[in-house]
């Protein structure tokens, strides 16, 4: 008899303060087995704004391609993205695959400091360069009410 076992690891996001000076919720990344580059992101219910901080995680240290499923995509998810190139303090870009996300995501914003710039793409790929901290911070805006069970988020370093 064959028994399958699935192991999950958790990477917790770091709470940040939103524009209204209220603490936002943490998003949690659960990797599939031992692969830190693929997993599921979840946010507790009732949260209007959440942050997934991948800085200083196994995902940021080893992955040049990341895929995850955002469960119950409602309201806002801000992703703080770092890659193996961040530690080298070198500029890089990511190619964000919007083909799979734009059904559930209404807008994409790029965050520089406290400024949010609308960058919702018209094409299937969105390429964004790292900032002066060697990070890329994207805010995904979903609907205010649940319209889909989840959405796949994918990006790769280019």
List keywords for this structure.
158 residues, mainly beta, Jelly Rolls, twelve-stranded mixed beta sheet, 12 strands
Textual characterization of the structure:
The protein is mainly beta. The protein has a single domain (8-157), classed as Jelly Rolls. The chain contains two helices and twelve strands. Strands 1, 2, 3, 4, 5, 6, 7, 8, 9, 10, 11 and 12 form a twelve-stranded mixed sheet that branches.
What is the string of SSEs from the N terminus onward? EEEEHEEHEEEEEE
Q: What CATH first level would be assigned?
A: Mainly Beta
Looking at the overall shape, the CATH architecture is Sandwich
Helix content: under 10%
Overall number of strands: 12
Radius of gyration: 15 Å
Q: Assign an overall shape.
A: globular
């Amino acid at each position: 008899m064959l028994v399958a076992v699935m192991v999950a690891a958790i990477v917790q996001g770091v709470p940040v303060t939103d524009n209204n000076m209220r603490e936002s919720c943490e998003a949690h990344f659960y990797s599939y087995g031992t692969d830190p580059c693929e997993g599921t992101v979840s946010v507790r219910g009732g949260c209007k704004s959440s942050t997934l901080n991948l800085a200083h995680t196994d995902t940021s240290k080893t992955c040049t391609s990341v895929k995850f499923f955002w469960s119950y995509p409602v309201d806002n998810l801000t992703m703080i993205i770092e890659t193996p190139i961040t530690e080298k303090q070198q500029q890089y870009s990511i190619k964000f695959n919007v083909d799979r996300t734009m059904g559930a995501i209404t807008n994409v914003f790029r965050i520089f400091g406290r400024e949010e710039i609308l960058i919702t793409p018209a094409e299937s790929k969105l390429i964004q360069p790292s900032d002066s901290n060697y990070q890329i911070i994207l805010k995904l805006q979903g609907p205010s009410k649940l319209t889909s069970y989840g959405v796949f988020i994918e990006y790769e370093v280019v």
